[in-house]
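agent> Task received from the user: take the single chain below, predict its 3D structure, and emit structure tokens. No templates, no multimer pairing.
agent> Plan: (1) validate residues, (2) run structure prediction, (3) serialize to tokens, (4) report one or two observations.
agent> Step 1 OK, no nonstandard residues flagged.
tool_call: predict_structure(input=
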Amino acid sequence: MPGPPVTPSAPDVLATPLQYLKGVGPRRGADLQKAGLATIEDLLYRFPIRYEDRSQLQPIATLRPGQTVSITGELLSGGLRPTRRPGFKIFEALVRDSSGTVRAAWLNQPFLRDVFQPHQQVVLFGPVEQYGTGGLQLTNPQYEILDAEEAETIHTGRIVPVYEKTGSLTPKMQRRLVHDALQRLPEEIEDLLPAAVRARRHLPGRREALAATHFPAPGTPLDELNRFRTPGQVRLIFEEFFVFQLGLLARRREMDAEHKPRAVHVDDRIRESARRVLPFRLTGGQRQALKEIVEDMQRAQPMNRLLQGDVGAGKTIVALLAAVVAMENGLQVAFMAPTEILAEQHFENIRRLLAGSRFRVALLTGGARTRARRQLLAEVAAGEVDLLVGTHALVQESVAFRELGLVVIDEQHRFGVLQRATLREKGLHPDVLVMTATPIPRTLALTTYGDLDVSVIREGPPGRLPVKTVAKPDSRRDEVYAFVTQQLEAGRQAYVVYPLVEESAKVDLKAATEMADHLAQEIFPAFRVALLHGRMKADAKERVMRAFVAGELDVLVSTTVIEVGVDVANASVMIVEHAERFGLAQLHQLRGRVGRDSSQAYCILIYQAPLSDQGRARLQVMTDTTDGFVIAERDLELRGPGDFFGTRQSGVPTLRVGDLLRDRALMEEARQEAGAWLDGADRTPALVDTVRRTWAQRFGLVGVG
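)
tool_result: status=success, residues=705
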């Protein structure tokens, strides 16, 4: 005798591939998978981009110019009308309801001729405009063609979710798929948010939240929906942040459970050794950062600390003092920089500062000759090298340390998370100090560096003047050149930076090359001008850079290869060409190349008119402040978190429903709740295991350590 029908469990339903939903099939399923939608769960966690209240359908006879309206009616006729502009056509249609008729017009969308047929029932949503003498039209309205059986339930007569078009999947098709997926869900589905957290925050259950987010109940305030602040939306955003923070904190606690084979100790002899290295008195911020770092090094658990400091704040000397403490304890130190030029500069500075000490410093880069490299690697493995400076060459398998105790990573956002992990594994749980001159807004620090403790150096070295920054239109270039000539005549040096935009790199490089020739021959014929760009061979690049550092060149025309770390104290002017094409963080980094001594330095941002609103806002921020932390917050607001670091490998999580900017307060609250739950009596190992198992893949991150 057959048993009762088996109802699939929620995990089964949520994990169902989308191709098995009605109307999808293998081909469209593959299309959706390319857009990151593989399962029913992926589909349900893709929020609408906005909501429209189509419950109030307006009779055509009541339409007035200036309104944005929803109407429904029968399409009487449609056709293309040519215009005076070659190739530009308008598709016009006439729509009728029981109260009257109105014209609808779509500009330059000739394909609509194949979409609309007479006698279709359509819903149009858009602005009403005056047309001709006394007539009205809906201009470029959004449209839906209604199916008789579904028309009343999903697409109209209610608050309607509007989705972003995905491949061949239209917003209307998505609405139907989501509706179908919600019907399949059982009444009870697994809830990732613990009951105690839900109760404390008055959040609905997971199934209820999903239904209310996609098909809101009548009367739900439209402005709350479009601000993503209804209880259902908040619940799903909070759930994502809670799971993210739970994974970070669990990972952090695993690291804290590790033990170093040898904790560092500090005594008067070591303090005196560190003092001998110091070329100047530390600022208050540097002293505090060093105290936090050395306290971490003395713990039994490995240090995982981020040192944030603005350009020129003196992070390197703090890291070097920490390195002296490690080396005095018989440990080796690895110092990793993102480019060969920067690695060499660190090497020269560190070697100079440690010249009077007993410690041996060496440099390892990708360009080292085979025999010399083999010899150096043998010495590192034998423990004869105390401090090894290098690029990502340090993470190669062939590099082995005898006792690696401290890893310093400069300009972390340029390294992949995976490279950090590989380097950590080279020592027996070494202390890790990550440095960045890109100040990170607190919201991003909670995510990108959520597993690290943070030290901040806010003030610059004593005696440094803020760089004077002005924005000038291209039309005032002559006065800029006159000013630069004065600086060069006074014995100073200048940078001229040209952007390379990936899509037009060849064109841009040609422009930068022509600019260098023009400056050398026409503008600064009495001075020495050179060009530096990323496509030059490494040794040619090095020669130009060394000549500029040595004062053998007066003007360096460059693409942004000089963005990070090059230190030329005599350079007093930074000109940024096409400044409107750069992001704020990049502009701030470029400005940091000048003002490296106690005299006044200048940054001149040359822009092409007309400026976009965002371009104007960026230049305004640059001329208003030199505080990197203020700039970082504004950069996040103007660009959004996805662009802040620029690369997927940077460690910014891929979020399905949360927005790091819009929902920053919820991220903070989720972190507190996750910590409290992990410490509480009601924590369940099953949830921690689920999170640990799926965390890196779910958020598009690579686990570290």
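agent> Step 4: summary for the user.
Residues 338 and 414 are 6 Å apart (CA to CA).
agent> Done.
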